[in-house]
Fold:
Amino acid sequence: MTEQFKFSTTLKPRAMDRLMGADFVDHPRYAEYLWDTLSEYWYRLGLRLSPDLLSMLVRVEGSYKTPFGIHEEAKIYTRISRIGRSSAVQEYQINEAISGRPIATFTETRVWVDAKTRRPAPWPEEWKQKVIAFEGKENVKVA
Structure:
């Protein structure tokens, strides 16, 4: 299932990520993990944000498979699977790093927003081309 992903990063939870002393990661922490992974993906592809353009999260869906133990490491896979005029769909697969046990899957939709007008803005063409070159044109639906 992870063969469709060309990028991954490994993450170890912090003690503060647990729920009231439990031995598993509290669900709100996953949002931080996704943002960290997305930031690493952008950095790897050489995508640098402009102060004129904002990335706004407009939708996130997740499915939890098994608890993520506080003493485990996660391997988080991500890819951009769709690019619209001003939006993109990012997919994530979170597995336990050693065994590969599925932990959760997420899908996010982000929209580029002009910082001054607060209106949707087109994807930067340079970014679009870098994503397509990295992911492969057969793996990214472009609207």
In short: The CA atoms of residues 49 and 55 lie 9 Å apart. The domain at 2-142 is CATH 3.10.129.10 (Thiol Ester Dehydrase; Chain A).
